[in-house]
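A sample copied in:

***
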Amino acid sequence: MLYLRRREGHTPMYVCICRAVTENEVHDCIASGARSARQIRDLTGAGGDCATCVRKICAMLKRAEDLVATA
């Protein structure tokens, strides 16, 4: 199973302010198999408005890919 950063007692940061999507929600999408910003948008709505968060989502996807490649 892919380990994605989650800490107990940690308030998750918002990735998408427009749709109030947190980093935990994006991590959950990635853990469930999402492999593109478009897939995450379809699941959460993140990136569907101003698209400012798309870079952050892509960085999170890249980090997850890198973790899988080194595992």
Observations:
- The two ends are 10 Å apart (CA to CA).
- Helices lie at 23-31, 37-44, 54-70.
- The chain has three helices and two strands.
